[in-house]
Amino acid sequence: MDLRPVTDPIRGFLFVTGGWACLGLAIVGAVLPLVPTTPFVLLASWCFYKGSPRIHAWLHRSRTFGPTLDDWQHYHGIRRSLKHRAVVMVLAVVTTTLFFNALPWYLQYVTLALVSFGLYTIWTVPTVPDDAPRAPRTLAE
After folding, report:
1. Euclidean distance between the first and final Cα of the chain, in Å?
2. Do residues 51 and 11 make contact, with C-beta atoms less than 8 angstroms apart?
3. N or C: which end of the chain has fewer CB within 10 A?
C-alpha cells in the first residue's frame, strides 16, 4: 500500500472530501451511540494525509482530536479514561433511548446487538494507561 500523499488534484480532492465526510461522521458519533467516533477520526486523518498534508496537520494540532491521534500514532491505543468515558456515554444514551422510545421489540434487540458489537470493539482496542506520558507531538505546530 502506498502511504505517500497523492499528487493528482482530482484524487486529492476526493481524499479531502472523504476526510471531511469521515470527520462529520465522527462528530455525529460523539452524539449517537451506534456511530463510532474514533475509527472515523482515524480514517479522516488518513484521508487528509493522502489528500492534503495541511489539513492533516490541522487535525493533528486540534485540541479535540490531536491528543487521541498522537496517542494512536505513538502507542497504537486509546487512553483508559477515554475508553471508560465512551462506554459510560454509550450505555447512558442507549439506556435512555430504549427506556423512553417505543421501538418494536425486534429493533430493541438489534440496537442491543449493535451496541454490544461497538462496546466489544472499544474494549478490544489496545489500552494506553492514563499515567503514560503524553505522546510526542507528531506534527510541527
Report:
1. 28
2. yes
3. N
Q: For the chain, what are the domain ranges?
A: 9-128
In this structure, what is the dihedral angle of CA atoms 91, 25, 44, 90, given to the nearest 10 degrees?
0
How many CB atoms neighbour CB 100 within 10 A?
7
In tens, the pLDDT along 51-62 reads 998 999 999 898
Cβ neighbors of 72 (< 8 A, separation 6 or more) are: 38, 42, 78
Report how far residue 134's alpha carbon sits from residue 100's, in angstroms, rounded to the nearest whole number.
40
DSSP per residue, 17-65: HHHHHHHHHHHHHTT-TTS-SHHHHHHHHHHHHHH-HHHHHHHHH-TTT
Task: Indicate the pTM of the whole model.
Answer: 0.70
DSSP string across 58-89: HHHH-TTTHHHHHHHHHHSSEEHHHHHHHHHH
Express each pLDDT in 102-125 by its tens digit: 889 898 899 889 888 888 888 898
- In the block, cell 494525509 appears at 49
Residues 6+ apart with CB under 8 A from 96: none
